[in-house]
Amino acid sequence: MNKRNLLIGILILFFGCSPKTGLIQPETSIDKPTPLFVIEGEEIDSDEFLYLFSKNKQFEDKDNMLTPEEFEQNLELFLNYKLKVKEAEAQGLDKNEEFEREFEMFKQDLIKPYLIKNSLQEGELLKAYNRMQEVVKASHILVQFPSGASKEDSIAVFRMAQKLKSDADNGADFSALAKEYSEDPSAQTNAGSLGYFTALQMVYQFEDAAYNLKINEISEPVLTDFGYHIIKLEDRKPNPGEVRVSHILVRSPMGDPVSEERALRKVGEIYHELQKPESEWEQVCRQFSEDMGTKNTGGKLPWISLGSVIPEFEAVAFALQEEGEISPPVKTPYGYHIIRLEERKPIAPYEEMEPMIKSRILRDSRSSLIGSQVAAMQKSRYGFVENESATDTVKAIAKDKNMKEAIISLEKAELMDQELFSIQTKTYTTRDFIAYLADRENQVITGRPQSTFESQLNSFITYTLDKTEEEDLEQNNEEYRMLLREYRDGILLFSLMNDQVWQKALEDSVGLQNFFQENQQRYVWEERINAVIVTMAKKESTASVRRFLSDKVYKSDLSDRLENTFLLNDPLLFTMEEGVYEWRNHPLLKNLALEKAFHEITQNGQTQFVIVGSKIPASPKLLTETRGKVIQDYQEYLDNMLIANLKEKFNFSIDENEKNKIYEKIVQD
Fold this sequence. Notes:
Layout: H1 3-12, E1 35-39, E2 42-45, H2 46-53, H3 68-90, H4 97-111, H5 116-131, E3 134-143, H6 151-169, H7 174-181, H8 187-190, E4 193-197, H9 204-211, E5 222-224, E6 227-238, E7 242-251, H10 257-274, H11 281-288, E8 304-305, H12 311-319, E9 330-332, E10 335-345, H13 350-363, H14 365-381, E11 385-386, H15 388-398, H16 403-412, E12 419-423, E13 426-429, H17 430-439, H18 449-476, H19 478-507, H20 509-518, E14 524-525, E15 528-536, H21 542-549, H22 558-567, E16 574-582, E17 598-603, E18 606-616, E19 619-620, H23 627-649, E20 652-654, H24 656-666
Antiparallel strand pairs: 1-2, 1-20, 3-4, 3-6, 5-6, 7-8, 7-10, 9-10, 11-12, 12-13, 14-19, 15-16, 15-18, 17-18
Helix pairs in contact: 1-19, 3-19, 3-23, 4-19, 5-13, 5-14, 18-19, 19-23
């Protein structure tokens, strides 16, 4: 977050810090609520004051209730806040491009928790995490579509999948069916077995079907982008988490019996060597492992989870129980491995895994599923009705044309005012659709004609539904409406204050100088004194530093002489500070008898030496000596002047009855 956004955030949190802590919910009533303030005809309800002010207060608890004085102060702050927002609006700050861009940026973040999409997405995240508490073991038979499959081909593939399902249900050996019929290339070696896996490791349709099966149950044909799958669930068990292992690899070329024998003998000798008490894993690994990427780092591999490595390696790695335990040699397609367990860890908490799960879900087919569900719920909630005959006509005219040609044809056919769909009571025409396309930057108007046109029409429908949901939230969701107004007013308040107070105090050098001169009595030095303070870090050198300082008086070159005498050879001998101090306010100097030049103080076992000079009488400060404090005071002055001017400029009133109602809620007499 940049500095500007940080300041806006501070202003927005003017009355509190948490939008969900102790929020006093606005009272619901059929009658229009009585406004707390009226400023230039605009009514400001007490609900807004309570919303802002009760963020970090639970007024049901008497300990959190206000005193009458605190109530009046905060009511005055709220009035000043709303007057400044009114002034920002009067200056048109809510109409400029910078405001609109910044408010839209905040709005997109604020609305997310309230959208249908967010709740559905959160549900998918939790479902995936809950599934990750378990691992399942499954086998499958894959029946794929032929290249360029026709409708008849697709039906034939589905019927084949149904037959294989029926055969398996009637007792046929599933592994044998997989080896004979599965078009998964690995089926010839693994008989369709996929080993253990968990959520997010398979395509969603496959995962969903597998997790909904009982052990030994066989699924109906499951359609994915790969084809139809018949799935048999073989086992399910708690997720063991992840393991970190090291390995020593002896490679064994496939199909070479001589090399196989040699590798088997070598790995046996390495395993025997590792059984000796004096053997060191890292040394043996460095000497004999044929994994060039890990041999010099003790054979260490990244963390692995079930389903993330080849099954033969995985089974042995997860079977190891004690850290440092070494497995007998295990054969994989890469050769022979000896595996050592380094560390185990359980599955991480949801908060830690949420970003990874979200990233994975947004990249897989779940994202499209969520989008479809969102659209269906929006269409139902907001009364979406498509004019199918009109959209079919528009699509037919657009067929075989690029986007630009399609628009010209629609204009010629006089279909620009044809209703395509309606949402609630509002209708959307072809003209609205074309206007939507014109607003899209870098809009593609060439390419595959029909797919481009249809996809853009679907995009227009999605966009319109999303905007309808946003507008509905602004009108009917009280919490979101309050939050949105809070941020809107916060941005306006920042812009006004930055222009009229903060930047003005920094840039108005004449005004700052005049303010300083008019208030000179506020910027005065008390009686001061020059001093050098030495804090010893090494006790053994205390005596030599004492001898050097004990007969000295304060001079401007004393610190240089100290540094040249001691610190050139030993920079850590002591620390030193020199300055002009208001001695009555200094924690060390105020306790000294300042008529003496040399002082030695020992506190908590630490020695300090102080050399003081002559006292400097009280005197006015120069602007350069107190510029920061003067700017701060000038900003406060400008703020007070702004508020006074706004109270003169705008007509405003307060409803005393409504004020008393709030008083009774939050004030402890």
